[in-house]
Amino acid sequence: MAQKDPGTVRSITDLARIAGVSVSTVSRALTSKGALNKETRRRIQELAAAHGFQLNVAAQNLRLGRTGAIAVLLPLGHERGQHLSDPFFMAMLGFLADELTERGYDLLLSRVLPQGDDWLDLFIRAGRVDGIIIIGQSNQSAVLDKVARHYGPMVIWGAHSARNAYLTVGTDNVAGGAMAARHLLERGRRSLAFFGNVGVPEFAARYQGFLSGLPEDMRAQVTLVHAHVTPEASYRAAADYFAGGGRPDGVFAASDVTAMSVMAAAAEHGLATPEQMSVVGFDDVPLAQLTNPPLTTIRQDIRAGARLLVDLLFRRLGSQPCESIEIAPELVLRESS
After folding, report:
1. Pairing status of strand 154-157 against strand 131-135
2. Cα–Cα distance, 88 to 84 (Å, whole number)
3. First to last CA, the chain
4. Would 239 disulfide with which of 40, 96, 97, 265, CB 3.0-4.6 Å?
5. Checking phi first, is residue 196 left (phi over 0); if not, alpha (psi -120 to 50) or beta?
């Protein structure tokens, strides 16, 4: 029986033997995914080229019983007009893509307009991904609960609730709202307004926290202005409010995007920020420090959140026990207040 030429490369195992490294190292080198020394990556790629070897990623994933992809879903139940270009989404997606690439996975992105209560089950049954990260609960908590009871590799960015069956990573929105209230009180502001859609669980928690941070006799005096999260909708809501005579001296907005829209609408109606009206946002997206004036905001650590989402998901993929994580918010002082 003929002996196989020790220099012949018919498989990733052959190439790993010749290179003197593990099969996983060869895989990372040829897919350009995962952490690997640049020189090692270059050497393995040159060896593969010299032997005319190309990695069949689809076949490899099939053998391993995986797809090599993680879904990032954005279910827009309440905020159906919201787009992927939203600054918060863009920041979160960038960090998630970095984290998943480091682990050798592709990111499959989908903006979902939920129809019925089986949209998530239908997506899972398609078998396109190995796990799911969902950004925001919207009004889909019942769907998420149902799926979490039979599907393990799923993590949600959003507010934690003990009554939910699903795993979450999110900021303590109530504490963040209370921070905003205390800050506006310290600035001497007493005529206060909250801008946001309290039908969204995270925004409702921020509003609840904002009220809790005020003296009892002030809570009933806070004006609630229903504003959807898109720049256009937030601006229209704020412009209508100011045109109708609204003149708060302190504003807490449910998101930075909403806060920016409020400041723009206020300027159009002769209300100067911060001289006449202090404004506080929530998120600390990169654009927040570039507004005029730069935006004071409640920071939620989006980079850390993305890292925790991916870490918990891969622990779930490995059947390891894990619990929901709540991130502490931070007040970032800038010139808008």
Report:
1. parallel
2. 9
3. 83
4. 265
5. left
Confidence (pLDDT) at 34: 63
The pLDDT tens digits of the residues spanning 235-270 come to 999 999 999 999 999 999 999 999 999 999 999 999
Q: Provide the β-strand partners of residue 157.
A: 135, 169
DSSP string, 254-288: SSHHHHHHHHHHHHHTT--TTTT-EEEEEE--GGG
CB atoms closer than 10 angstroms to residue 46? 12
Query: Assign residue 119 a region: left if phi > 0, alpha if psi is -120 to 50, beta otherwise?
Result: alpha
The pLDDT tens digits for 93-125 are 999 999 998 887 889 998 887 777 888 998 888
Residue 17 pLDDT level (bands cut at 50, 70, 90): confident
Whether the model pTM is above 0.85: no
Strands (E), the chain: 69-75, 106-112, 131-135, 154-157, 167-171, 192-195, 223-225, 250-253, 278-283, 296-299, 325-327, 330-332
Locate tokens 């490369």: which residue?
A: 9
